[in-house]
Write a structure and sequence with these properties.
The structure is a homodimer of 333-residue chains. Chain A is an alpha/beta fold and 333 residues long. Chain A contains twelve helices and twelve strands. The structure holds a DNA duplex (16 and 16 nucleotides).
Chain lengths: 333, 333
DNA sequence: CTGAAAGCGCTTACAG
DNA sequence: CTGAAAGCGCTTACAG
């Protein structure tokens, strides 16, 4: 199995042609005789030659690697979102002859990304989330590294792709309001995540569209830990809240736990919905009404965009992907 | 921010020395005057020079990339195990100046790994699980790529690191038996995963050690889908089973759902334990008695071993890491 | 202690 | 249509 050290020079010598010719036969660039090309290609196949991409990269100033920037914060790490994203990205990168290089960053420490860039190990990068103050994004921009952001950002120069969180939350919240619910509470995550703001805006949109609605609403943001959720939920239960809206499945899981512990019936006593639908909640009872996004598709699209940018195509601002509202047993709608 | 195209030649010229000297000053290899080294280092720092690792790699026939082989099968993808592993690996690789290149493989398709190897993009690889018939492992061996396997394998040539699944399951099962349980059932995943066999062996060990035990036991393997679990559990409930032992948290989650739906009290009516402890079950009620492994540590150790192998150190066969049995409310022990 | 030169395995003007 | 040669940015015997 040592075909691994066959080089273009070996082939050239063996076939009595120049390295130039071999190179051209493989890349398809430059004029070359049909006959010659065939001879080379046959030899290459017969001997399982595969070119040294590193050398090729050095000559062309390319690496054929894409940087995948993943958050390393606790809590976040385990969300299935990033894994699914990664799978989508990996597949389309691979299909285009690219590999994926990992860079794990936290809000305050982006050294892995810096290293990948300074070491010229990547041709471009994909951010898998966006922050209100986004250090990785800033770094990529300052260093002229092409990138696409999964998530939204106000920076219009940045190529970005996201699910329509705002629209989705607007629609789901609207359905709740229209069903006659008179009191509801929103529990959300960190405000520094762009997605939190977008979901919040969608939530508010629904009220703005229904000026006649005269119920009560409460909003709790920056909720990060299970204990906090518990406190909030307990208070809400005392107040006889009708519906609790969770920004993500982690929060929703916490809420359901409290319900279960206190033997509160969902949806009979309190309705619950989540603005995100992952395997975390997949097989809990009751099934939770929530919004579903095609995350793998998101990864694929993002990667496709980056590949096109690397091919010199002009990039296209912001792209918004759809969503699906899934009504399930945790609501009475 | 265009310090990115400063080369060793520029520095040599600027400082009036040879490229050789600059190279030596940076790498520390070969004799060089203290004075000269300082001049070079100061220049390098002042101008934020960072060498082109790709070129360096070409000259040294190294890439400073580690291949991370991740399973892409559905179900598996979302297990927090692989993400945690990845974090551990990424951190220690990064600390040693290496980057992590992703290769997603399925049981029958390892093209991403093949590409990474044929393209000479990695110096070594880490397998994040092992199979009874392991195609990725075979491929790496055939091509002489250094690797360490997270998980166990019968192949003694393979460097492997794993948690002591057998010992852990033996201990937990033993505690159950000693507590006076008279009937229990084991539900396990795919037999092609090495870990399934190891957990099963531990389970059986506990019985072997207690020849006097005269209760009943049942074993269900190759269980993959929620529907299957439901059927099994329903039958077990009819039989008034005392305890259900789940091989992992996915299976355990399914079991708990059935309990909840049927209003079965855990642990009053049936006790439940899991042989793995992840965030999937983290905040469910009742908390599930299970075995906890330090997965990030596993990743770190595995990566450390690979790095040492790449440094020419001799590798050390099989390493077994510990575990912790966590007794919680789902059992009466 | 330092340097000129060859080499890593490709690509790509340039010339024929 | 094909090739000799220079170049991508490093490293490393070899010689001094």
């Amino acid at each position: 199995m040592e075909e691994r050290n066959l080089t273009i020079a070996d082939i050239a010598q063996e076939l009595g042609v120049s390295k130039t010719t071999v190179s051209r036969a493989m890349s398809g660039k430059g004029r070359i005789g049909e006959e010659t090309r065939k001879r080379v290609q046959e030899y290459v196949e017969a001997h399982h030659y595969s070119p040294n991409v590193v050398a090729k990269g050095l000559a062309q100033n390319k690496t054929f690697n894409l940087g995948l920037v993943l958050p390393g914060d606790y809590n976040i790490v385990e969300l299935p979102f990033f894994q699914k994203c990664m799978m989508g990205i990996s597949r389309t990168a691979s299909a285009a002859g690219y590999d994926v290089l990992l860079s794990v960053v936290t809000a305050d420490k982006i050294t892995q990304l810096e290293r990948a860039v300074m070491n010229r190990k990547i041709d471009g990068a994909i951010l898998t989330r966006t922050l209100t103050d986004d250090a990785p994004m800033r770094y990529l921009q300052e260093n002229g590294v092409p990138f696409v952001a999964i998530g939204s950002t106000d920076d219009t120069r940045a190529v970005q792709i996201d699910n329509d969180h705002r629209g989705a939350c607007r629609e789901l919240t609207g359905k709740l309001l229209d069903s006659g619910i008179q009191s509801l509470a929103l529990i959300g995550g960190r405000e520094e995540y762009m997605v939190t703001g977008n979901r919040l805006r969608g939530f508010e949109d629904a009220f703005a569209e229904r000026p006649g609605w005269d119920g009560s609403r409460q909003i709790f943001l920056d909720i990060d830990e299970e204990r906090e959720v518990e406190k909030i939920v307990e208070r809400l239960l005392e107040e006889q809240i009708a519906c609790i809206v969770c920004m993500d499945d982690f929060l929703c899981g916490c809420v359901l736990n409290v319900m279960q512990m206190r033997q509160i019936e969902v949806p009979e006593q309190v309705q619950v919905v989540s603005f995100y639908d992952s395997s975390m909640l997949a097989n809990r009872t009751p099934a939770v009404t929530s919004i579903r996004f095609d995350v793998e598709e998101l990864g694929k699209k993002a990667c496709g965009m980056l590949l096109r940018m690397l091919d010199g195509e002009e990039a296209e601002g912001r792209i918004l992907l759809g969503y699906e509202v899934r009504m399930r047993e945790s609501t009475k709608i």
